[in-house]
């Protein structure tokens, strides 16, 4: 391998490919199980921020190259490169604008995000999958939060995502005991949307993406926003937010198409506007 190839592997990349109304993001560092470098995280922040303002997009697909989804943030590559020791408070100063921003964007962007998980989903990679709207995993995939085994506390949203998705008891098993969870068990726990046999994984993901990309995109985005709001709001506050979102969605072209299709007893053909 050439020096340039070594350097590219060390940095890794996130490739963005547009297929119709679907944006596919691929974590491309398979030799390191797609562990995330600073450059990869910065790219994801930029691409997702741009996607949030692109009215022609209708779904986002997140996946890893090779046999694994993502083995987390590469602390070896990012903090042990032989440079000077970071100053005190460096993590608190930097991570909210980098790794945490990626999780926030995936969780809040008003587009449905589908994540394909095969192999390892570790640390931030695990949380990235859980932050997606729909994670579809191979039955033999492995979800793992290894923070305690490494001697530091959880980050990248683990303590928020896990108890809400799987309950506090199971969150403790993953965060305090470091238990690994298979794709099959993750689906049974409600951590993810679906588990599939490895040979059927891509087909299941494509079917889901096609369904979402043909849906009323504005209404889907507003429903996602309302779900997120409701996680930390009272019933009254949630219904007020729903009413505001309803006012917006009723002004869309897709709303008119939905009503017309209902009257004509046919399947609606939404265009995402």
From TrEMBL:
It comes from the Bacteria. InterPro entries: ClpP/crotonase-like_dom_sf, Enoyl-CoA_hydra/iso, Enoyl-CoA_hydra_C. CDD domains: crotonase-like. Gene3D superfamilies: 2-enoyl-CoA Hydratase, Chain A, domain 1, Lyase 2-enoyl-coa Hydratase, Chain A, domain 2. GO terms for molecular function: catalytic activity. Belongs to the enoyl-CoA hydratase/isomerase family. This is Enoyl-CoA hydratase.
